Structure formats: C-alpha cells, structure tokens
Amino acid sequence: MTKTIENLTNNRKITRRTGLFALVASAIAIASFAAPQASFAADKSIKVGITSGEDEDVWKVVTAEAAKNGLAIKVVVFNDYTQPNEALERGDIDANAFQHKPYLDNQIKTQGYHIVPVGYTGVWPIGLYSKKFAKIAELPEGAVIGVPNDPSNEGRALRVLEDQGVIKLKPGTGILATIADIVENPKKVKIKELDAGIVGRSVEDLDAAVVNTDWALKSGLTPANRIAQEKIADNPYRNFIAVKAGQEKEAWVKTLVSSYQNDKVKAEFDRVYKGTGISAY
C-alpha cells in the first residue's frame, strides 16, 4: 500500500514535470514565431550599374538611404550605354539604372536580354542644340544636324525635328524611326548619325545637334544653347531601375526602388541636374 502511494506520488511529480517542460517548450516555440525576423538585407550587398557623370552624386544619396534599410549598394560606373545591360545579363551586376523603355526594348530585340524595369527614376527631355543659331527658323538650307545613332534615340531625335517642322516622317512610323523614314525635307538638311556620347561634343562642328540631356551636360551645353526640346507630356522616355527577369519580386528590389524614390534623393537629383532632368515617379 505504501509503495502504491509512493508510485502515485512519483507519477504525479513526473506528470507535473512533463507538463512544465511542455509549457516551456510551447512558450519558446511561440516566441520564435512571434519574434521579428532579421532583415533580409542585414548582410545583403548588390552592385548597381550607372553611367558616369551627375548620376554618381545622385547614387551616393541612394546608397546612403539603402544602408539605413540594411541594403549595401556598390555602384559600378560605365562610360557608355552598351555596357550596363550586357553586365546585368551576365550577372556581373544585380541592377542598372540608365535607360528608357524604347532603348531596352530594342536591346532585348537585338541582343536577347532578359531584363525588366522595376521602378522609374527620371526623364531627361532631349533637345536640339546649336552654338551658331538661336532659333529653328535660322537654320539654313542644307544645314548639317547631328543625331544619336542608336535606334531608340535616333527615332526620338527625328521626332523632335518633325515636331519643329524641319522634316516629316512617313505616316505610321514608330519610335524607332530612321533617316530612311524621312519623306519631306524642305530645307534639305543633312542628318549626321553619331554615337550618343559624341554628338554633344560635336555641336561646334555642326549647325545643330539633337543631344540627350545627360550628354548635353557632360558636353558643356547649356539651356542657352537649346533651340528646341521634345514634349514632356506623355513622354515614353522615362528612365528606370532594371533587374534580370525573375528577380523583380525579390525583397531587395523593393528596398532598392524605395531607396531611390524619396524626397532626399529627389533634392539631390534636382541639385545636380538643375532642372534639365525631372523626377519621373
């Protein structure tokens, strides 16, 4: 009888001890699920490709904003438009920020890249610049006008000339128009196709040139040299941050975009571009 009582007492102790262990284990498990998870970016580092120039200052601010959210950005600077997409496709960088959709569409078509936009940055209205003439009407017959030679920007440049009445393009011609699509040229202007990075530096040797705004700044051109500019309303040439297809839903991508699209970055953007570029998000 005594042993039976002892056994019952021991069993109760074991039951209480087992229950206590179970409660502690449950509490630990609940705490584990309830505790905030470590930031994905606590040790996340990415490489972002941009083109050299004023954008380097803008991305210093972007990098600082990203660091606040645990995302370390290493900026990789390129000197022309062809390298950033190639580097992104190869996986040498994780994202880039330098192009608009017509340019990317053409790169995908011709190079087979797998790249998608994930967040807008800014738009730089392309302009017609001259150091010889102050107005479109002053351009003489046979004037030599430089345009960028890459497909998307050449079509864009020709649209500026068409809007100003210098030329007329074939009806229905899309944004990838070429000089072969010119059907009217009342002043018999000569269109000279040049690399986008060179056309701005060649203005003094030309009568006028259609130059991308970023290259205009790098070439020392000012608004005083601009005699025409493309329309801003419904502009299809907004630049954006891009990543490899399949990466667009990654958490770091959202952080990267928000690190650009904020008031601090906009203030720096406005400072370095002095109104020649416009935030587009």
TrEMBL record:
Alphabetized UniProt keyword annotations: Lipoprotein, Membrane, Palmitate, Signal
Organism: Phyllobacterium myrsinacearum
Segment forming the signal sequence: 1-41
InterPro entries: Lipoprotein_NlpA
Keyword Aminoacyl-tRNA synthetase recorded: no
Family: Belongs to the nlpA lipoprotein family.
Principal place of residence: membrane
Protein name as catalogued: Lipoprotein
Annotated localization: Membrane
Gene Ontology CC entries for this record: membrane
One Pfam family named in its UniProt record: Lipoprotein_9
SUPFAM superfamilies attached to this UniProt entry: Periplasmic binding protein-like II (SSF53850)
Membrane topology qualifier: Lipid-anchor
UniProt keyword annotation of Zinc present: no
